[in-house]
Amino acid sequence: MRSLSYLVLLIIMLLGLTFASLNSGIVSFNYYLGTKEIVLSLLLVCVFGAGIFFGLLVAVLLWIKAKRDNMRLKSRLKVIEKEVENLRSIPIKGD
User: Fold this and answer.
1) Between the N and C ends of the chain, which has fewer C-beta atoms within 10 Å?
2) For residues 54 and 39, is the Cβ–Cβ distance under 8 A?
3) Interval 31-60: pLDDT, tens
4) What 3-state DSSP class applies to 55?
5) HSE, side-chain direction, 13 A CA sphere, residue 68
6) Helix, strand, coil % (nearest 5) of the chain?
7) CA distance from start to end of the chain
8) What HEC string does 34-86 produce?
């Protein structure tokens, strides 16, 4: 299993190396504070990395919200189950 992980990592590194060699041109990156000359492959990797970061950030925030909602619902369920148990223990008065 470990050798398979190393093989996948090696393939990803080789793909990254070929990607960088195919996109080695210099581009002008314009941002609010100025302009910067940067290698296209580096710019693309930074943009993809930022996208992955923000995507994971949103996913983690949604996961935390779901966990909080789940805990809230579990506490409500305990209260309702306790109430049902109390109602079941009350004797029924017949006419």
Assistant:
1) C
2) no
3) 889 999 998 888 888 899 999 999 999 999
4) helix
5) 6
6) 75, 15, 15
7) 73
8) EEEEEEHHHHHHHHHHHHHHHHHHHHHHHHHHHHHHHHHHHHHHHHHHHHHHH
